[in-house]
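Treating backbone geometry as a discrete language has practical consequences that deserve illustration. Part of our work consisted of pairing the sequence of a single chain with a tokenised description of its backbone. We regard such an encoding as a compact summary of how the chain folds. The amino acid sequence and the backbone structure tokens for this protein are reproduced below.
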Amino acid sequence: MPTGYTYKLCEKGESFKEFVLHCARAFGACVEMKDSPMSEFPPEAFQESDYYRDSLRDAIAEQRVLLAMTDEEKVTYGEQRRINDICSERESLQRGTECNRRLEQMAERIRKWKPPSPQHDELKQFMLKQIADSMEPTHLWSDGLNRAMQKAPIDYYNEAVDVVGKRIPQAEARVGEERKRTADRNTWLRQLRESLEKEGSAV
């Protein structure tokens, strides 16, 4: 039975070059094409992704905004981050507490349940294990809420500056890696096309 790669060859016929280029989609340089239609051949050259350049640009812009803030703006910024942090931790704590309450109620019913036969004992133990594995770590959110309430707004500002300062060199490294990855993919593709040209089969 033909595969996605051999279907066209079996049904309509394909040149050697077409078949090779279709199969090349399954390999490193072209693997990102795996979800594209089988009718598509690899491009003449791959383009660098904008993702890492955009991430670098955004990090630099964020750093500029943070460093340009007045002392009053830094405190206002930090206070907003603090409020958001407190709200997030409080909501997570409330959701986790409610979830644990429901789990405990169910566990209590399961513990009181008498299985109809010894063959059902494993089911009871399985259910209790599912409950135990699902318990939310509410102490983490409680601790996080306490830390957020005690932290000064300027600490939030300083943390944001520190984080974006680390993101910039990381993003720069990713841009370089993407550039090299794209160059390597294009070298692989160029070598493949040159090999196929020697076969004298056009596509």
Q: What stands out?
A: Residues 51-178 form one domain. The mean pLDDT is 89. Residues 153-199 form the longest helix (47 residues). The radius of gyration is 29 Å.
